[in-house]
Write a structure and sequence with these properties.
Elements lengths: L3 E8 L8 H7 L1 H19 L5 E7 L6 H4 L4 E4 L5 H14 L4 E6 L6 H11 L5 E5 L5 E6 L16 H11 L4 E3 L9 H13 L5 H14 L2
Parallel strand pairs: 1-2, 1-4, 2-3, 5-7
Antiparallel strand pairs: 4-6, 5-6
């Protein structure tokens, strides 16, 4: 295990099983194709950093390597809910020797290597770092040591970030909160992502290629 580990929480891209809110707007197949493109682009963007990239995969028996590359490292997610699976991923990576761990969700492909590097840098002086999202959640969390900020917190609500930050403060942890962004859950988020790609702010070629299959389904 490298000194730093970057773990991406990912679900195997199966239509109807990924991006379910977006699928209700776009259809299951286009939403899945877009999510699959996120995974490919994130591997290309993040694999070359000063950290070891690890894919934490659910279902636990799934194999992402046919999508993200045979050289990719995988970790099976374990736990009864997302909060437990997140905590176990942190605990497993620290137990394997990681000095610092940053976790991303696979629905924020636009974060990129620079923001990941900034998160690791923040952990040089802080115990925890977050990138919140506009809907009350967060798309990045990093820890300098294994602290359970997750178990028992209901994910997917508008108070997730506030509750998690309060738990960190209750444990006496030094925290850094980076500027907020969005994750891709709704059609408006797809539009925001497309605008970033069109402006050149982020290079996501597979996502760009998948977008034409999304807009006809969305009636745009």
């Amino acid at each position: 295990m490298a000194a730093d580990a970057l773990v991406v929480m990912a679900r195997y891209p199966t239509p109807g099983a990924v991006k379910t809110r977006l699928a209700r707007q776009l259809g299951a197949a286009p939403a899945c194709a877009l999510y699959r493109a996120f995974l490919v682009d994130m591997q290309a963007l993040l694999a070359g950093g000063a950290w070891q990239l690890v894919w934490a995969v659910t279902p636990p028996e799934a194999d992402l390597r046919a999508i993200v590359g045979a050289e990719a490292r995988q970790l099976a997610q374990r736990g009864d809910d997302l909060a437990a699976r997140m905590w176990h991923a942190f605990a497993d990576l620290f137990a394997a020797g990681a000095a610092r761990v940053v976790m991303l969700g696979a629905d924020a492909p636009h974060l990129g290597a620079a923001r990941v590097a900034a998160a690791f840098e923040a952990l040089s002086a802080a115990d925890a770092v977050f990138v919140p999202t506009h809907d009350g959640g967060y798309c990045l969390v990093g820890l300098a040591a294994p602290h359970d900020l997750f178990s028992g917190i209901a994910m997917g609500t508008a108070t997730v970030f506030a509750e998690t930050l309060a738990r960190a403060h209750g444990l006496g942890l030094r925290t850094v909160v980076r500027p907020p962004t969005f994750d891709v859950d709704e059609l408006d988020d797809v539009r925001a992502l497309a605008s970033l790609i069109d402006s050149g702010a982020v290079d996501l070629p597979h996502t760009r290629a998948a977008l034409p299959t999304v807009w006809p389904a969305a009636g745009a």
